[in-house]
Amino acid sequence: MLSYDTLSKKPLLFKSFTGLTVQEFGEIYEEITRKYDKHELKRLSKRKNRERSIGAIGRPFKLDIKEGCLMLLVFTVFT
Asked: Is the whole-model pTM more than 0.90?
């Protein structure tokens, strides 16, 4: 399975899949995690006709933030 843990152990493979070094990805990931909660609250607050409150149980994401960012980079490199 393609994951951050797998790719980060092989820096050359990581760079060929993402276009970034592991260190560059780490810096970007830190920036994303600092801003993520605020942005997610803003995104969820835009919907005026909500049936449930923000944070109510719903379908969770299959990937965490780090894995999602990695997959986005891989997708953009290969398209």
From this structure: no
